[in-house]
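To close the section, here is one more complete example, presented without commentary so you can practise reading it yourself. The ligand is nicotinamide-adenine-dinucleotide.
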Amino acid sequence: MSDAVTARRRVPRPENDPNLTYAPGTAARAELKARLVTMAAETVDIPIVIGGKEIRTGSTEPSVMPHKHGHVLGHFHKATPDLVRQAVEAALAARQEWASWSFEDRAAVFLRAAELLTTTWRSTIVAATMLGQSKTAYQAEIDAASELVDFWRYNAAFAQDLLSEQPDSSHAVWNQMEYRPLEGFVYAISPFNFTAIGGNLAGAPALMGNTVVWKPAGTAMLSAYYVMKLLETAGLPPGVINFVPGNPVEISDVLLDHPDLAGIHFTGSTAVFNSMWQRVGQNLGKYRGYPRLVGETGGKDFIVVHASADPQAVAVAAVRGAFEFQGQKCSAASRMYVPKSMWSDLRDRMVAMMKEIRVGDVRDFRNFMGAVIDKKAFDKISGYIDDAKKNAKVIQGGGCKGDEGYFIEPTLVQASDPAYRLMCEEIFGPVLSVYVYDDQKWAETLAIVDRTSPYALTGAVFARDRAAVREASTALKNAAGNFYINDKPTGAVVGQQPFGGARASGTNDKAGSKMNLVRWVSMRTIKETFAPPTDYTYPFMAEE
Ligand code: NAD
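Output:
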């Protein structure tokens, strides 16, 4: 196919995947419920996948249901350091061929994967996310189905825009920009809390022509494995993404010390990303180039309420923003600032909703919340709640019950000190801490919101008074990478609210945007002269 034809090809224009409601009586609900039954009855043997080959080491860990932790959904095989090295070799071996594919051929693999996910694979990946990560049907739907479909479809369109950006040319000169994949392999490390993130962390660099070693989170292995299988089914060639479950430290030791490490695509906690960055810094002399470091990390996301706000809108945003998926979203509302004049009204509205909320097994669709991910999270969150019982006021909730599933009630805490640790630290659970401020102290409160936490991921202001919105927007310019006005701070949609934060919340390369994709290419500028000069002298040198 000639270049002229290639240049005119366009990927289909993306549109956000519509969310299914799973309301009673719908076919989607019936299909999902049936899938939950069959998948809960299976015990999946999850292999390592290197160069398209499934490998089983026999050293395994179980994947369980967080809401019924005695129930084993599968076992995943853990990679040895030697297998991790083989995964790098497989990635490097696949690189040349994959990078030589036209962008359209690479994009077609992800577009096909998106099509499969939105249709025949939907119930499988949604059910895996419900069972393995304890998301309700709707939370699993907006993550594992819609968001991942959106990542794959929008990235193809964003990549196309990026590749079409070309420099100007002058007389008898043609300047071109070539978007080369990075030299080496990309290490993708995904968190437990979003199935879509794994598919994007590995998928975005691969779309741009890179090959990848993907280490999924140990507590989200079932859904990650199905994402890997889906990509293979969609035609992803062997070795382009290598699926390497196992001990994160052992795996990272091999990959971060490898001379061919070309980039890290990470989402997870700030401490882990910091440790990887430090290791890369120590290793700089070893690498072929400067590895690209892209990390989206922790948050301590705020809702700041002005006295002019609509209390019902605030209450709904706070309940959804803080407690959906048990507060285990990097964007979850976790600290709230409320004017004294509104507090008792807002508190009563929230408490009424929280009393209604059902927490339990996500296969019972009446539940609004499931369990937190594992025992470590359960212990950490209950520790914060114990602290609140002693050092603050627990307004509602506070119950923690871990015998069958890791259940924590939605919890509302009132702190009298805005620097109290529950107002500052990332808890990653269903705990919302509130500081009630004097109505007169709006400007001072904005300054407190800005300086209270090291993070700057998401935040929301609620106000009907436009001047207050403007003030908050200015005072909190650097306090959030995703800022919401009269809306909850969660639920960013690919293509609509590019996502990422600054300060200790990450490199802010905005997942699901052209800005992220630019990190996975290294540009080569090509100047071609059609009429090369034939005389080395310049006119100014001539005799007068
Ligand atoms: P985590 O940091 O514990 O784990 C993330 C990944 O890193 C996992 O694959 C894990 O196995 C691996 N890992 C853990 N320890 C490691 C080590 N020492 N060396 C190398 N890799 C290691 O995070 P998590 O609990 O899975 O996810 C929750 C965190 O992720 C929260 O802090 C949350 O705010 C953050 N998060 C951020 C975003 C964002 O876009 N900013 C999105 C989702 C989650």
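Once you have examined the tokens, check your reading against these statements. Confidence is low (pLDDT under 50) at residues 1-5. The longest strand covers residues 68-77.
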